[in-house]
Amino acid sequence: MSASGTPTISESPRISRARMIAERQQRYSVWRLIHLLSSLKLALLLLATIAIACAVATVAESHFDASVARAWIYKAPWFIAWLGVLCINLFAVTLSRWPWQKPHTGFIITHYGIILLLIGAVVGSKLGFEGNVTLRTDGQPQRRIITDRSTLQIESPADSYLYLLPFDAKLTRPTEKKPRILPIPGTSLEIIIDGSSEHLVKIPRLEAATGTAAGAAALLDFTSQNLNQNLSIGLGTGEGSQAEYDFFGLAKISFHQTLPEHGAQGFKDSLTIVAGSPTLKGVSLSKDGTLVILHPEEALSVSFRRDEVIHRNIESGGVKVLVREYHPPENTGLNPRPPEIRIELLSDTKVATDAKPWLELAPVSGAKTGNEQSIAYQLGRSDQIMASGVLKTGDSLPLDWADWQMWLRQIGTDAAVSSAVEPGKPQEQGGIPGFHAYLREARAKKETLRGTAQWIVSGEVTPLTLAENLVRVGYGLELRPIPFSIALSDFQVPRDEGSETPSDFQATVLMRNTKTGEEKSGLIRMNHPASYPGGLLANMTGLNYKFSQAEWNPRDLKETTLQVLYDPGWFFKWTGSLAICLGIATMFYIRPRS
Q1: Which of 167, 249, 538, 593 has the fewest CB atoms found within 10 Å of its own CB?
Q2: What percent of the chain has pLDDT over 90?
Q3: Taking the model in full, what pTM does it have?
Q4: 266-to-75, 312, 353, 574 alpha-carbon distances in Å
Q5: Residues 560 and 505 sit within 8 Å (Cβ to Cβ)
Q6: What residue ranges define each of the domains in the chain, with the CATH number in brackets?
Q7: pLDDT tens column, 57-75
Q8: Which ranges of 28-104 would DSSP assign to H, the alpha helix?
Q9: Does the pLDDT of residue 418 top 50, yes or no?
């Protein structure tokens, strides 16, 4: 090297470049910062942290659900910031090679491709969303999408304005010691959230009522030992009370002022068969009560184990029997009672087996007070009554719907059905998410007023009160508006030939721009979504709403649920992925000539 800094003839270009880079780091603080940020140790630290975070997110998703993984990791501010630092590191690495030379081409393209891919992931996470919309062929067009983000809606008593803020009780986990405090805009009130539950259940109850709200009402308990399920419902005839209940789509339960009339009875007679007694109507019960015996002919008998046929229909020859109840023997007292069963003789009338069964209830005239309250029932299928009778408080009724039984818990006359929300057992499946909250107001002289605490259930609006103040609070999934409406024109489910197995789902939708009135139709099939506005530009930029088949209702082909995807970061994702592939190909397959 000469005194002027000119490289000698023996100095190679690589050594000269390294010397130049070292000199500019010494002379310029900007280049020192660039080379510091391009450190390989920093890159390894960033990548290792991201890898560990992704592993933790995978474990969280498997133990909880995807929303927990997104909240704790993928959409957490620290993770987004970490990705930003990684982008700065990759950008600094490319600048540290300046001035770029031809061999750097693939290296530079690959790094900028990774940066674009990370930018696309962040943009899609912040501005995009996934959701669903349920449409019906006989329903109204929809302009809102239900996302998986939980929100809180608060109506301020100061201006009656509805304030929205993201809030998920499952993720925040408020407690009495660490409550979540939310100030109400325009007031000195605060909402104190001191508990949450993912298994809130509504316990029905009867309360005295007057006017049009008053009517006959009943509380019913349903149990299934095989399914380990317990269900309580309240039905009533008063205004505001629920009069019908869809029993898991398998049956219909309804409460009436008087029982409706139907066609022919599905049974002939109801009898009690005592163990060891003579044959009655072709049926007898063994002395120990373990066998139900049918006698279709005088010299012929067929035996069934009683514990296997209880609540079931049995048949032999011309004898058709429904075994309703079993009463074990009572050996106490002066008059011991042998075992006995209650049966119903079925008629020969055929009932459509594909029809949905039903249970109809109505109050018995004259039964008003005390333990003598009772209701009449009809149990049937199609237009056939299979069983009927009267139930008193505490009585049970086998429904012949698998092993479900109904218990009559309470009856009321001038009553209405209401419900109380309580946390269920965490080990039990089902329930509704929600949180426990109350209003609080701080006044002078360190005086604090507190309102009545309530459980706020997802999907409902609950009023919180404090003195004369009333604040309506809603909690549930976010309803995100879209700039167009979508309606279901037709929904078809083609079947595999010779079977009932669906071979495809075909939903025809009509999308309409709310500003211009322009309409566009789309056909959604399996693995073939429809999009709006569609077209090459919208698909390339990601400014496009994609609709694909998500769920359908086998009992109602007028309804379908579509999944909606909107990802404005799609352009950065696909260009970044393309750049990475191009850069790797340039580095390894397009070698520059010597």
Answers
A1: 593
A2: 21
A3: 0.65
A4: 60, 14, 13, 66
A5: yes
A6: 13-127+574-589 (no CATH), 129-144+479-569 (2.60.98), 151-201+427-471 (no CATH), 267-346 (no CATH)
A7: 888 777 776 777 777 777 7
A8: 29-37, 40-63, 66-69, 77-96
A9: yes
